[in-house]
Hints:
The protein is an alpha/beta fold. The chain has helices at 47-52, 127-143, 152-155, 169-178, and strands spanning 13-14, 20-22, 30-36, 76-78, 84-86, 92-94, 101-102, 105-106, 112-118, 148-151.
Amino acid sequence: MWVDAQGLLAGGEYIPSPNCDDRPAGAIELLVIHNISLPPGEFGGDGVQRLFTNSLDINAHPYYQTIAGLKVSAHFFVRRDGRIIQFVPCLKRAWHAGESCWQGRSCCNDFSLGIELEGSDTVPFTDAQYDALHCLTMALRAAYPIGGIAGHSDIAPQRKTDPGSCFEWARYLVALRRS
Length: 179
């Protein structure tokens, strides 16, 4: 697994999201780990893909009424089976972090990559997701000067709780150190 010169994961599935724009000058230095499922707590559907591509049918589920008109994206989405879908090239700014701060720097979207894991705060992630996240992280670190990895809850603690208490940080970080 590797990232090409256009910021796309080589050989990966790419579904372009319109919810991105040009990054300001500067390095990509941070990975932000999130979780998402749509409808909340349901896995395997196309809700996340539809949200990130602005094609969500707000009448398909009552929850969707609460997020109508939301314009968000992430660079990557890791499904429960470990399949990775890319929505935004790494060289573009995805809209995943919102109001955020990391090591005294605000606007984390400017210098980060967003990775969404299909899941919730209360359901353990799968072995396939940890394997895919590890490989993806290694590819991103090889392509960019990633200096930090944080959860969405770390950069926006007043607003966000993801990736949640079920995310095994030690498992993920130990595997990265061994690589």
